[in-house]
Amino acid sequence: MTQSTTRSEALFDRARAVTPGGVNSPVRAFGGVGGVPRFIERAEGPWLTDVDGNRYVDLICSWGPMILGHAHPDVLAAVTDAARRGFSFGTPSEGEVALAAEVVDRVEPLEQVRLVSSGTEATMSALRLARGVTGRSVIVKFAGCYHGHVDALLAQAGSGVATFALPDSAGVPASAAGETVVLPYNDLAAVEELFAARGQEIAAVITEASPGNMGIVPPGPGFTEGLRRVTAAHGALLISDEVMTGFRSSRSGWYGHETGPDGAHPGGYEGGAPDLFTFGKVMGGGFPAAAFGGRADLMARLAPEGPVYQAGTLSGNPVATAAGLATLRACTPQLYPRLEATATRIADAASAALSAEGVAHRVQWAGSMFSVFFREGQVRSFDDAQQQDTAAYGRFFQAMLEGGVHLPPSAFEAWFVSGAHDEEALETILDALPAAAKAASA
Ligand SMILES: *Cc1c(COP(=O)(O)O)cnc(C)c1O
């Protein structure tokens, strides 16, 4: 059966007339996989329905936020109730206090957070705070880590130690990119060498808590701990970007995932917690709510208490904070084992189907998050991640779509599941896999 895509095609044509590339975020254009992006009309639980009436199991989940599935009744009720009481006040309101308290309560080192509207705003503001606190300007990031479209953080190229990166994007001035040093992920020696040479200039190291934007590439043993040790020794801050992992890889994000039952941190925080954290995605429940936070003494440097300015007309928006709070409250300790079980079944089945067709692949995990690389062997860095067969992924993606499963339209993304992925959704995925694996091998 071939799906009709007539209406999506017509909408994509209209979209391209009024919006660059027809989309409001580049990866949605299907450039990495080919074909027509599906215009979604509605979504419920694990299902997306497009404008042509095709139904897909959703493995994007809005790139993370829809951890409970679409239109979850508790969240819908909270949003409806909030909207009835007004959309935006531009004054303090109780919902923002409750959401901030929930976030602070979940991530042990956090004392205060400031709410913003996107992950990009969170990382941008965290960098400004780090520079304001330290009086230094250089930022260190890792190749393959995405922190939103912040000028200083779009630099990804150049993995050499102490080389100034060139901007990846036109429109980023050399002066902005020139304050950013990009190092290879999981290469602590490169970090140590850079700090030995230029430690006094570095305001902060920012890292994805467990990278998920080049596919899932968890920190190797001792890497995060090493970052903490080196930054602390040189008076630089460590910023842990949990926009993707926050409240998804565990109840307390990657930080909580790395906390053992006895409170020990087997995976990287023995040397102490990061100074600042950033959050987004899940904490907005599908609405624009994000945050950055850390110790109270650092956060006190923000206006109105301190000299680092940061603000937002819609920050702490009552509808968004209601959605975020209802979502986090439904993210109970019971949810995460279920997500992990669902993810494991999907990953195992995908792996078996690909193996049966002789397609080289590797599955990597970060708590309940996983991704499938179309290559063999451990992936520890962006260089490793790039050495995969993206054309095979494109064929796999198209066949899964035809089989009623909407994967992320890029080989460099996690596959996101939700608490609403039930037996019917799983069966649909399992049924689609053999043909998709065959297509990938072709
Ligand atoms: C998605 C993401 C961002 C950017 O968040 P937006 O809400 O898209 O601006 C930043 N950091 C990480 C790790 C992300 O996954």
UniProtKB/TrEMBL annotation:
Pathway: Porphyrin-containing compound metabolism; protoporphyrin-IX biosynthesis; 5-aminolevulinate from L-glutamyl-tRNA(Glu): step 2/2. InterPro entries: 4pyrrol_synth_GluAld_NH2Trfase, Aminotrans_3, PyrdxlP-dep_Trfase, PyrdxlP-dep_Trfase_major, PyrdxlP-dep_Trfase_small. It comes from Janibacter cremeus. The modification N6-(pyridoxal phosphate)lysine is found at residue 281. It catalyses: (S)-4-amino-5-oxopentanoate = 5-aminolevulinate. It is found in: Cytoplasm. NCBIfam families: hemL, PRK00062.1. This is Glutamate-1-semialdehyde 2,1-aminomutase. CDD domains: OAT_like (cd00610). Homodimer. GO terms for cellular component: cytoplasm. Its cofactor is pyridoxal 5'-phosphate. HAMAP family: HemL_aminotrans_3. GO terms for biological process: protoporphyrinogen IX biosynthetic process. It comes from the Bacteria. Pfam families: Aminotran_3. Its main location: cytoplasm. Belongs to the class-III pyridoxal-phosphate-dependent aminotransferase family. HemL subfamily. Its EC number is 5.4.3.8. GO terms for molecular function: glutamate-1-semialdehyde 2,1-aminomutase activity; pyridoxal phosphate binding; transaminase activity. Keywords: Cytoplasm, Isomerase, Porphyrin biosynthesis, Pyridoxal phosphate.
